[in-house]
Design goal:
- The chain is α/β, with parallel strands linked by helices.
- The chain has 3 domains: 392 residues, Alpha-Beta Barrel (TIM Barrel), CATH 3.20.20; 65 residues, Oligo-1,6-glucosidase, domain 2, CATH 3.90.400; 89 residues, Immunoglobulin-like.
- The protein has 15 helices and 21 strands.
- An 8-stranded parallel sheet has the order 9-8-7-3-2-1-13-12, with helices on one face. The chain has a 6-stranded antiparallel sheet with strand order 14-15-16-21-18-19. It has a 3-stranded antiparallel sheet with strand order 4-6-5, with no helix packed on it.
- A hairpin with a 1-residue loop joins strand 10 and strand 11.
- The radius of gyration is 24 Å and the shape is globular.
- 1-deoxynojirimycin (NOJ) binds next to loops.
Length: 564
């Protein structure tokens, strides 16, 4: 029987560092070329060695893989490609023994069209209990899906259209139906009874759609229409029901919501409508694109800083931020916001820039060794449904090479190449041919090689995690940005009482001078972290210089300072 926990009992997430696992590409333990829970089990000590205290698993459930696990055909089982329930329990127990929490992906905006509910619902019929589990209409409205053309698909069996905001094989559930909400609560209880610690909740802001499903207007259709299906009129009412179940177990809830603005996020994170402990922001993921990576534009540090600061300032003491630069939906961050040429420097600089913000850091598999985007020869080599749609729908007048380059910059597949463990064949991911292409740079970029590099990206991540873990200021202190208009340097302070940490990150590809803002020179300070250890020594640096600093390409540092 679950015991209701006081709110602060679940606040473990505030001091946590999450490691995110997209299992299919993490480690193959049963020699079939597909990552699985046997592979995960073997790597739990590695994850622990990063200092991670929690794991978020992307969907592990049975799925036909139209959207690699986000099209679920059974919510209460394990995809046989990944193992079985016994293996999951082993992983869960071992993770717990190692002091790591486990968070599952909850995907209830839609199911797979192969889910038994949908198979029943298609049959229609007045006394069919599944009849209204999905959103059926005689006439579609003008909505577009995010992944595959029109948001409506005609179903011959039922003789009606069903709504799918994502791929055709992902029909949207009708959350207005109380029976569907009961199903969701049963799913929550099923996993919580097994002992999981919480959920990352997929496109959770889409589960309540505007009454009557009105046509959308706007220049870019999907964006104009999205206002009709995000943050709908009953969203907080439904989420309250789910929250009550999670409250019984003290389970953490992390919401994912495309197009969530900081103001709408606050409605999920605070006040009477609080249903989530954290929300994933998308704002800072558009520093090199508009809306999605496919609409590429040159990276601008100012855009990144503005987005990060907006969330830091607005949430401040009212709510808690989630911090990430990579996940399974975005290309690799070194290839985007850093530089493959300055691989180590930019990888460590990016780590510094986000790990010390106020909030809970998430590290995505491979990010900690600086994995980069893959470049494939033909669109047929890519497997992600949204990459294929983008390629076939936009910029059709451009050459194949140019369209492929766009895919190279934007595809989610870059985050989904097999994890690079060592320099053996298949990057040590599997001893047979992997299900997807391994990035050819694996001989140089891999875990084993990084273990041998004291100043490499992997060990730098470990140092960041340790530094954050032992400092109240870095966890709970306030945030202040300096020099926001500086296009090359990101500088912020975390402060608690008299103690401050100053984080300085140069995103320039050349040496640049940097003047400390007023109020810093003359203070006694200590350098606690540098990504240029041959140039600077950590330890006392005495009085901060008046003449400023000379920063190397992607140089980053953390300075600890006592304020008078
Ligand atoms: C967000 C998930 O992160 C993404 O991978 C998925 O394709 C969509 N939601 C649809 O479930």
């Amino acid at each position: 029987m679950a015991v209701k926990l006081a709110d602060d009992k679940r606040e473990w997430y505030k001091t946590a560092v999450f490691y995110q696992i997209w299992v299919r590409s993490f480690a193959d333990g049963n020699h079939d070329g597909i990552g699985d829970l046997y592979g995960v089990y073997d790597k739990l000590d590695y994850i622990k060695s990063l200092g991670a205290t929690a794991i978020w698993f992307n969907p592990l459930y049975p799925s036909p893989n139209a959207d690699y696990g986000y099209d679920i055909s059974d919510y209460c089982d394990i995809n046989p490609e990944f193992g079985d329930m016994d293996q999951f329990k082993k992983v869960l127990n071992r993770a717990h023994e190692l002091g790591m929490k486990v968070v599952m992906d909850l995907v209830v905006n839609h199911t797979s069209d192969e889910h038994p509910w949908f198979k029943e619902s298609r049959k229609g019929g007045d006394d069919n209990p599944y009849r209204d589990y999905y959103i059926w209409r005689d006439k579609p409205n003008n909505w577009d899906s995010l992944f595959e053309g029109d948001a409506w698909e005609y179903d011959d069996v039922r003789g009606q259209y069903y709504l799918h905001l994502f791929a055709k094989k992902q029909p949207d559930l009708n959350m207005d139906n109380p029976k569907v909400r009961e199903e969701v609560k049963n799913i929550l209880r099923f996993w919580l009874d097994l002992g999981v610690d919480g959920f990352r909740e997929d496109v959770i802001n889409f589960i309540s759609k505007k009454e009557g499903l009105p046509n959308g207007i706007g220049f870019i259709p999907v964006i104009g229409q999205m206002h009709n299906y995000k943050d709908g009129p009953h969203i907080h009412e439904y989420l309250k029901e789910f929250r009550e179940v999670c409250d019984e177990y003290g389970a953490v809830q992390i919401g994912e919501g495309p197009m969530t603005t900081v103001d709408s996020a606050l409605n999920y994170l605070s006040g009477r409508t609080k249903s989530m402990d954290m929300m994933f922001s998308f704002d800072h993921m558009t520093a090199d694109c508009l809306f999605t990576e496919y609409m590429h534009r040159p990276f601008k540090l100012i855009r990144l800083k503005k987005a990060l600061s907006r969330w830091q300032y607005k949430l401040a003491d009212r709510a808690w931020n989630s911090l990430y630069l990579e996940n399974h939906d975005h290309p690799r961050v070194i290839s985007r916001y850093g530089s493959e040429k300055f691989h180590r420097a930019s990888g460590t600089c990016l780590a510094t820039a986000y790990m010390f913000l106020k909030g809970t850091p998430f590290i995505y598999q491979g990010q900690e060794i600086g994995m980069t985007n893959i470049r494939l020869k033909s669109i047929d080599d890519y497997v992600d449904v949204s990459s294929k749609t983008n390629y076939n729908k936009y910029h059709l007048k451009e050459s194949v090479a140019s369209r492929l380059h766009r895919i190279h910059l934007s595809s989610r597949d870059s985050a989904r190449t097999p994890m690079q463990w060592d320099s053996r064949d298949n990057a040590g991911f599997s001893d047979v041919k992997p299900w997807f292409f391994v990035n050819p740079n694996y001989k140089d970029i891999n875990v084993a090689a990084e273990e041998e590099r004291p100043d490499g990206i992997l060990n730098y991540y470990r140092t960041c995690v340790k530094l954050r873990a032992k400092s109240k200021t870095l966890i709970h202190g306030s945030y202040k940005e300096y020099d926001p208009e500086n296009p090359l340097v990101y500088m912020y302070e975390r402060n608690l009482g008299k103690e401050s940490y100053i984080i300085i990150c140069s995103f320039a590809k050349e040496n640049i001078p940097f003047m400390l803002p007023k109020g810093f020179a003359g203070h006694t300070a200590k350098l606690v972290l540098t990504n240029y250890p041959r140039k600077r020594k950590t330890g006392e640096i005495g009085i901060l210089p008046k003449k400023g600093l000379r920063l190397s390409p992607y140089e980053a540092m953390v300075i600890k300072m006592k304020r008078k």
